[in-house]
Amino acid sequence: MHIDEHAALNADCPGWPEAYRARYRAAGYWGDETFAGMLAGAAARHGARTALIEGDTRVSYADLARRVEVLAGGFAALGLGRGDRAVVQLPNSVAFVETVLALTRLGTVPVLALPSHRRLEIGRFCAFAGARLFVTTDRLNGFDHRALARELRAEAPGLTHVVIDGAAEEFTPLDSLRAAAGPFPEDAARPGDVAVFQISGGTTGVPKLIPRRHDEYLYNIATAARASGMDAGTVYLCALPIAHNFPFACPGVMGTLLSGGTAVLAPDPGPETGFALIERHRVTLTSLVPPLALLWMQEAPASRRDRSSLRTLQVGGAKLGREAARRVRPTLGCRLQQVFGMAEGLICCTGLDDDDETVALTQGRPMSPADEIRVVDEAGNDVPPGEPGQLLTRGPYTIRGYYRIPEHDAAAFTPDGFYRTGDIVRVTGDGSLILSGRDKDQINRGGEKLSPEEVENLLLAHEGVHDAAVVGLPDAELGERVCAFVIPRDAGLKPLALTRHLRLKGLAAFKIPDQFRFLDRFPETGVGKVSRKVLREMLKQAHRASPATGTEG
Ligand code: OOB
After folding, report:
1. Ligand 1 center from residue 553 Cα (angstroms)
2. Tens of pLDDT, residues 66-108
3. Dmax of the chain from CA atoms?
4. What's the CA-to-centroid distance between 429 and ligand 1, angstroms?
5. CA 340 to CA 364: how far, in whole Å?
6. Are 61 and 38 in contact (CB under 8 A)?
7. Which of 183, 342, 437, 500 is the most buried (most CB within 10 A)?
C-alpha cells in the first residue's frame, strides 16, 4: 500500500528527464545513497565522536544512529510508512534531527516548517501535502504549539497523529515513541525518492512545496560541505532556524554530519547566545542572514567571549552590503563566505581563498561544475556578458518542478527545464554573480520571504478594507520592511485592528506589515493596475519626511 503511495508521490513531483539522470549519475554527482545510508556511514566512521550538541546534551554519532532507528520504530508503530507525509515544526534541537532522519528512514516525507509559521501556514501545509502527522513542540517563545495543533485537528480530518516534544497534554509525547522495542524498521527510502519538502519563500494560497530527493540533496550537501571546507574538525553553529535550506543543508547541520564534525544547535540566533556557544564549543563555522551578521558585528567589540576558533562566517538569504561585508574580518576576526542560494536548488558562494574584494562585492559562483546559468532579458534572450538580467538555472540539484502545481511550473520553468529564479544578476569576468534586484512578486524581509499577494488577500477579508496593496520598503537593517497601503471603507480603521485581524487569521508574525498607510485611492499604471512602483516612491518620500512614523498610518 505505502509503496504505491510513494510512487504516486514521486509522480506528483516532476523530476529530471532520464538523459539528465543518466548524466548526473555517470558523472558521479548522484550516488545510491539515502539519508539513512549517509547516517549509517557516518556512525561507522565516527561512532564515538560528538555529532550534536544542544545545551548540556551531547549525542555521539553512534547514539544518533541508534536513536533514529528507535524513533523510526515509534513512528512506524503509529502506522506511518513509505509515501506518507508529515509536517515537522521543531526548534533547533536534537529532536528535530532525530525526527527528520527517523521519518525519512521510513520513507515518510517531512514538510520542514519554520517555528515562526502559524495556523494559516501549518494548516495549508497539512492540507496540501495530505499530512497524517504533525510533529511540534509544546511551547516556544511564548507561543503554545499545542493550541495550534488543537485548531488544526478540528479542520484537518486527515491529520491522525499529533506528536509533541515536551508536555504533550492530550497528544502523543515524542518521548513515548522512543520506547519502541525492536526489531527496528529498515531503510525504506530509495535514492530517487523525495526525502523532504522544503518550503518556497513567499507562497500564496497554495503552498509551493519543494521536493528534495535523497540523491540530489545529498549531492547538494556534499558539494556545499566541500565549498566551505568542512571536515571532521568542523564545529558548526546552527543559529538560524534549522528547517531552512541554508542551515540544514548548505552545508549546515547535514553537511556537518556527512563530514564527521559537530553541530551545535543554538536556541536563538542572537550574538550573546552565539558568542557564548562559540567560546564554549570552539565553533569554527556558522551561517547568518545579513541583519543578524550586522547585529553580531555591532555587539562583537563589547563582548569578552573568545571567538578565536571561528574561521568562517557564511552570510546569505538576502544581500549583504559591501561595506558590511568588508567589516566582517576586522570586527569578527574570521573570513566571510557570501552565499546566494534558494530552497529550489542552486547555491552560489564565494571561495575560501578568494581575495577580500571578490568576497565583499560578489555573491559567489555556482558551487557545482554542472550548474548551468543563463542571464536573460524580458523577452527571454541572453543578455551580453556582464549585463544585468534575470537569472535562469538548471543543474544536478535544482528542482524541475514543485509538488502538484503544474500550472505554476509552466511559468516558473522554461520548457527546457531552467528554473526562473526571479533574481536580477550580472556575471563578472571570473564567473561571479552580483545580485542587483528582483523580478518577482516577493518581499525579502531580512532573509524571510513573503508574498505581498498573500497578505493583501487576508487584508481584503477584513470588512473595513476596500482595497489593499503590500510593498517592500528599503530598510537599512532588514533590507526590506513590509508596508501595507489600504483604502479603508470607514475612516476610523486603525492599524492595530488590521494587525490583530492578520494574527487571528493565523499568519506568521514576519509577514505582518511593519507599517500601514491609508489612502483614498491607489496610483494606477497606464493599464489601470495598481502601481507598486509609485507606492514605493510615496513611501520613500514619506519616510524621508518623517522617518519615525511607524504604524501610525
Ligand atoms: C535562501 O533560500 P530561500 O529559498 O529562502 O530564498 C531564495 C531567494 C533567492 O532567490 C534570492 O532572491 C534571495 O533569496 N537570496 C539572496 C541571497 N541569498 C538568497 N539575495 C541576495 N543575496 C544573497 N546572498 O535564501 C538560501 C538558501 C540556501 C542558502 C542560502 C540562502
Report:
1. 31
2. 999 999 999 999 999 999 999 999 999 999 999 999 999 999 9
3. 69
4. 22
5. 7
6. no
7. 342
Residues with CB under 6 A from ligand 1: 201, 245-246, 250, 316-319, 338-343, 347, 363, 421, 423, 435, 438, 444, 449
CATH 3.40.50.12780 assigned to domain 3-424? The reply is: yes
DSSP letters of 454-507? HHHHHHHTSTTEEEEEEEEEEETTTEEEEEEEEEESSTT--HHHHHHHHHHTT-
Length of the chain: 553
Q: What is the pTM of this model?
A: 0.97
pLDDT tens per residue across span 332-389: 999 999 999 999 999 999 999 999 999 999 999 999 999 999 999 999 999 999 999 9
C-alpha of residue 56 to centroid of ligand 1, in Å: 32
Which residue ranges does the chain devote to CATH 3.40.50.12780?
3-424
Residue nearest (by alpha carbon) to ligand 1 atom 7:
342
Is the domain covering 450-552 a CATH 3.40.50.970 domain? no
Question: What are the start and end residues of each CATH 3.30.300.30 domain in the chain?
Answer: 450-552
Residue owning the nearest CA to atom 2 of ligand 1:
342
User: Could you tell which of 199, 210, 338, 342 is best to mutate to test the pocket of ligand 1, judged by most ligand atoms within 8 Å of the CB?
Assistant: 342
Give the cell for residue 78: 503509529
